[in-house]
Design brief:
Alpha-Beta Plaits; Threonine ammonia-lyase; 3 domains; L-serine ammonia-lyase activity; 17 helices; Ser/Thr_Dehydratase; Rossmann fold; six-stranded mixed β-sheet; alpha/beta; four-stranded parallel β-sheet; pyridoxal phosphate; 406 residues; 14 strands; single chain
């Protein structure tokens, strides 16, 4: 028999079950993003949960319904991220032994955080699929209860409480835009939202490199795989139950490029002063990249997680400065003689652009031996100031090339 999806009554029961143990995160209208997109944009800040992700809702709903025998035996899950921490945290709270199986390349920070919640962590395999297979073997060998990250009615019901709260706080919303990985969050939100507002528009969002749910629903074939900032929704095979639910309830799925995801993460830091991981910013990325599709609507989107490595976040923010034209690396061809560098720096001073670093390249260039390449990393107040700088350098007789990123 097919596993049946949760009902709206199941989601309402989950909301009561987790009340007080999971943060009722704020739903806030963003004036700046609304103006940017040309729509009314409401953000649900699930990145403010204790473990910084919505996953706590489903994990707690599942763990709370275990029998005394199942609690005594303990649970096991396969995850390299937010699901692991959610199960470990609430398992410890409820006195349930927790085992988490993670791939061997899981960042040490995530392993440590999961262990700090009292879980036994097993590292095995190079990919999530390997860790998942090992977890299912341990489930049988040690008589443990498996807690699936998304394809479970109780997990889905817990996730659906996000939409219940969102629509309670902003009942005027007519469009819900939610990231999709395995589909648990959007499945729960879709069931809840359709029950509360039957005519609401439901749009899922996947990373362009991982269109697995779109392919499952639309019966299409697209390449799946690659390095993505949105690793939390980088799922090669979505759930069987979630695919059925979303195939029935969704109005469509948008695919977002890596550049758009990076931009959305940076925008949330600069405008909303909030840190969101790539997966959590995917909904906003879709809104910014497809403004014409959402113009004039009242939109709710879920910032579903905030667990991003600090070094990676720094890279994203610096890359955003480069794309905005405020930060640049210029390759300036000049005669290799006294006074050349002074002449160049004088132009920078006159243009009001700050020099961050300077490098000389005399050997690895295609220039004549009497010339050099002076590579300057610099920062301007805005993109126009950088344009003015380059024009002044060229007017002074220097040839300038600017490094760019897509």
């Amino acid at each position: 028999m097919q596993v049946q999806p949760p009902s709206f009554a199941d989601i309402q029961a989950a909301a009561e079950r987790i009340r007080g143990a999971v943060i009722r995160t704020p739903t806030l209208k963003s004036q700046t993003l609304s103006a940017l997109i040309g729509a009314e944009v409401w953000l649900k800040f699930e990145n403010l949960q204790f473990t910084a992700a919505y996953k706590e809702r489903g994990a707690l709903n599942k763990l709370s319904q275990l029998s005394e025998d199942e609690r005594r035996r303990g649970v096991i899950a396969a995850s390299a991220g937010n699901h692991a921490q959610a199960v470990a945290y609430h398992g410890k709270r409820l006195g349930i032994p927790v085992t988490i199986v993670m791939p061997t390349n899981t960042p040490l920070m995530k392993v440590t955080q999961t262990e700090e919640h009292g879980a036994r962590v097993i590292l095995t395999g190079a990919r999530f699929d390997d860790a998942y297979a090992h977890a299912r073997e341990m489930e049988q060998a040690e008589n443990l209860v498996f807690v699936h990250p998304f394809d479970d009615p109780q997990i889905i019901a817990g996730a659906g409480t996000v939409a219940v709260e969102l629509l309670e706080d902003a009942p005027e919303i007519d469009t819900l835009v939610v990231p999709i990985g395995g589909g648990g969050l959007m499945s729960g939100c879709a069931i809840a939202a359709r029950s509360i507002k039957p005519d609401i528009r439901l749009v899922g969002v996947e990373a362009e490199l991982y269109p697995s749910m779109k392919c499952a629903i639309d019966d299409c074939e697209m390449a799946i795989g690659g390095d993505t900032l949105a690793e939390g929704i980088a799922v090669k095979k979505p759930g069987e139950l979630t695919s059925r639910i979303l195939g029935e309830l969704l109005d469509g799925i948008e695919l977002v490029a890596e550049r758009d995801i990076e931009h959305a993460v940076a925008v949330l830091v600069s405008i909303e002063k909030t840190v969101v991981e790539g997966a959590g910013a995917a909904g906003l990325a879709a809104l910014i990249a497809n403004k014409e599709k959402f113009a004039g609507r009242k939109i709710g989107t879920v910032l579903c997680g905030g667990n991003i490595d600090t070094h990676l976040l720094a890279n994203v923010l610096v890359r955003e400065l480069v794309r905005n034209g405020r930060l640049a690396r210029l390759r300036i061809a000049a005669p290799d003689q006294p006074g050349s560098l002074a002449a160049i720096t004088r132009v920078f001073v006159d243009a009001g652009v700050n020099i961050v670093e300077v490098f000389h390249h005399r050997i690895y260039t295609h220039l004549p031996a009497k010339d050099t390449v002076i590579e300057v990393e610099c920062e301007a107040k805005d993109a126009q100031a950088m344009v003015v700088l380059i024009k002044r350098l060229e007017s002074a007789g220097f040839r300038v090339d600017q490094h760019r990123i897509d």
